[in-house]
Design goal:
By secondary structure, the chain is mostly helical. It is built from 9 helices and no strands. The protein has a domain at about 40-130 and about 150-245. The longest helix is centred in the N-terminal third of the chain and has 63 residues, at about 1-65.
Length: about 325
């Protein structure tokens, strides 16, 4: 009897171990699926928020310009820390919206898309909307008084860059939230935190590299070898062109992403543009023609909406200006 009981106990233990092993395998598979889902959603969110990235890079690189060369990296690091603080505020706020007022996500996405388009149109129309200064023909160079408080100058630049980052980070988080709005809460947390870290590291890592391109080019130009000198001259010539490219690419991406958000938010418009894309799918490059047509229409929608918002903003400014003069 004792031997039979022992054998029964051992059999139960073996069965239990088999069950544990099976459940462990199932849990591991589920964890792998969840990890794959998080990775996929993070990739999609990164692609959708990339429209803000070019503008973010250009704006932050411009904010650092004028700072002493040896202080550029510390200033970039300070702004990066400020950006992390911004995202530490914005991510919980976005998660709270998703948990308690999820119906607000779609309007926020539409507002974010309209704001992106407005920024793009305002950048294009800036030279026409603002009167040039009397010495507009002379390119103003940043002048730093050696007797001035350089620490105060740095703090001013950092505060301005962190304020700009807050607006751009809000756009990134809202767009990312719209991508994962229907996902479980834990996956939303993982994706938003991942996007916040990836975007901060990516943007400010690239900004640090961009602001040091001219220093690297100058250093290489002073080397003895012809190859190093040629590479240095190439970097010195490329640095300002890279800034210009980032600005142009960022503006185009703002229309593309902002217009795409607006189009997806209006069902008839979305279906109409999808129908146009399907209609041009002919020939060996059918997929390419469809992508070009859909993206071109998204950009067009973005430019139209941005122009309408800019017109409304200008009208509001005129009304306020008239009210101020009457007082």
């Amino acid at each position: 009897m004792a031997g039979a009981s022992l054998l029964t106990l051992l059999d139960d233990i073996a069965t239990l171990l088999d069950d544990i092993a099976l459940m462990t395998k199932v849990a591991a598979k589920k964890s792998a699926v969840v990890a794959d889902d998080v990775t996929t959603m993070t990739k999609v969110a990164t692609q959708k928020t990339a429209g803000v990235l070019g503008d973010d890079l250009a704006l932050n690189a411009q904010q650092v310009s004028g700072v002493r060369a040896e202080r550029e990296i510390p200033v970039v690091w300070a702004v990066a820390k400020g950006s992390l603080v911004n995202k530490a505020i914005l991510v919980p706020a976005a998660l709270a919206i998703s948990a308690f007022v999820p119906w607000l996500i779609a309007p926020l996405l539409m507002l974010g898309g309209a704001f992106l388009c407005f920024e793009g149109v305002e950048k294009l129309a800036h030279r026409f909307l603002h009167e040039p200064a009397p010495d507009a023909g002379v390119v103003a160079q940043p002048v730093v008084d050696l007797d001035a408080d350089l620490a105060a100058l740095e703090k001013t630049r950092i505060r301005g860059a962190v304020r700009t980052d807050f607006i751009l980070s809000a756009e990134i988080i809202v767009i990312a939230l719209g991508t994962v709005a229907s996902a479980p809460w834990a996956q939303q947390v993982a994706v938003l935190v991942g996007i916040a870290i990836i975007m901060t590291a990516g943007v400010y890592g690239l900004v640090g590299g961009i602001v040091k391109l001219d220093d690297l080019g100058l250093w290489l130009s002073g080397k003895a070898g012809r190859t190093a000198q040629a590479l240095g001259a190439l970097l010195l010539a490329a640095a300002p062109r890279l800034m210009k490219f980032l600005s142009v690419a960022g503006t185009a991406a703002m229309f593309l992403v902002g217009g795409g958000i607006l189009v997806h938010g209006v069902a008839p418009l979305h279906h109409g543009i999808a129908a146009v894309g399907a209609a041009v799918q002919h020939g060996p490059l059918s997929g390419l023609w469809r992508v070009l047509a859909v993206n071109a229409l998204n950009v067009l929608v973005g430019m139209v909406v941005g122009a309408l918002v800019l017109g409304a903003v200008m009208a509001l400014r005129r009304v306020r200006a008239k009210g101020g003069r009457q007082e």
